[in-house]
Amino acid sequence: MMEDISKKTKKIKIIFLGRYIVYILLALLILSIPLTIILNGGDSNKRMGLNIINEIRKKVKPRPIAKKVEPLENMVYFGVYQEDAPFKIKDLDDFQKKSGKEVSILMWYQPWSDSGRNIFDQKVVDFLIKKGVTPMISWEPWDPGSDPKKLKNPASQPKYRLKNIINGNFDSIIKTWARDIKSYGGPIMLRPLHEMNGTWYPWGGPVNSNQPEEFIEAWRHIYNIFKKEGATNVTWVWSVNNQSVPAEKWHKISIYYPGDEYVDWTSISGFNWGTSSEWSKWKTFNEGYIDIINELSNIKKPIIISEISSVENGGDKSKWIIEAFQNIKEKYPGIKGIIWYNRRDSKNQDWRFDTSTDSAIAFRQAISDPYFSNQTTPALKDFLRRWIGTSIKK
Q: Sign of torsion, CA 6 7 9 14?
């Protein structure tokens, strides 16, 4: 018997060739040593068996739990939404190559419906964070279909009314995500139910038989499930549209705010639509953002612009880009992050930075300012150090 255990011990020493292979094989080794041999053998056998298990426990340990993402001092995180990234990581690489700058944060969208990617893909996220990029997921309780732009009335989805979230109809998917994110352990910026002050999503306060106060209940319901499951590595991003629709006196963003305890960052979506739609006109950055930034500044949370871009239609896009980044730096110290929406939604609404030579030059010039940081977030650096023993040099 002693000879058998001794052989297994030698095998363990040979296995110590690679960190991840070691973890897998050591876990399998636990199962290969009959518990009865360890517990029922002689004293020396017991000691040998327990020593093996103790060594395995030292090597095979759960991932650490990341801290929340905190703002940088005197800098703004630079990030992007790039269609199909991170599921096609080449798309992110292409953006970084074309723009001449790496990003701190990558934002993308995931629905609750199984018609889309509705699972938390740890393999994809792990690959992303090892590149030094912090994930932000816009988590959407709806069914976007194969293309949300083709939905005739996207807000009319009774299944996804706020009341149904409050009543626990979706607790299964919420718990699954909470557990998966806790198991992942790394930092994640979660942006659920964004743009609730509009009329184009089924969780919007004015639509789908919703009431604005139900939004607060639904948000807290989701938050409390994550808290109960121990997913404290989530940084909660409460995100509004830059203009409330309908734009009436009663419809202030404050009626949707869940409270300081439930929010880590506030956020804005806002675009310069120019003349790309019959209802829109050209607006400067200040014209589109000043009012909402002032409102959010009263909440005393760091602000991230989670969707921003401009079309070419109706004005000078290159000038708009330069002025937008200048204003963020010089006039709005409360803004601590910016996510460029780099996608062509339609023929008239192309939000990519390089829709013209001039806009591409302006964008590269604007983001070259070190104030717009591509540094890895401290939360991610700390997590990687504690998880794999190294950090990212950026």
A: positive
Residue 212 has φ and ψ, to the nearest 5°, of: -50, -40
Which pLDDT belongs to residue 41?
52
Summarize pLDDT for 109-126 with one digit per residue, the tens. Answer: 999 998 889 999 999 999
User: How many C-beta neighbours within 10 Å does residue 251 have?
Assistant: 15
Closest CA to 208 of 146, 164, 254: 164
In contact, 240 and 195? CB cutoff 8 Å: yes
Residue ranges of the chain assigned to CATH 3.20.20.80 = 76-388
Shortest CA distance to 234 belongs to which of 268, 183, 275? 183
Q: Which two structure tokens, joined as six digits, stand for 86?
A: 């991170």
- Cα 267 to its chain centre, rounded Å, is 12
User: Taking the complete model, does pTM exceed 0.70, yes or no?
Assistant: yes
Beta bridge partners of 10: none
Cα–Cα dist 16/39, whole Å = 26
**What's the CA gap between 277 and 269, in Å, rounded?**
18
Whole-number pLDDT of residue 331: 97
Find where tokens 């880590």 sit: 264
pLDDT digits (tens, 9 = 90+) for 170-219: 999 999 999 999 999 999 999 999 999 999 999 999 999 999 999 999 99
| Amino acid making up residue 335 | I
Determine the Cα–Cα distance for residues 182 and 377; give it in Å rounded to an integer.
19
What is the largest distance, in Å, between two alpha-carbon atoms of the chain? Answer: 86
Among the four given CATH numbers 3.20.20.80, 3.40.1190.10, 2.40.50.140, 3.10.310.10, the one describing domain 76-388: 3.20.20.80
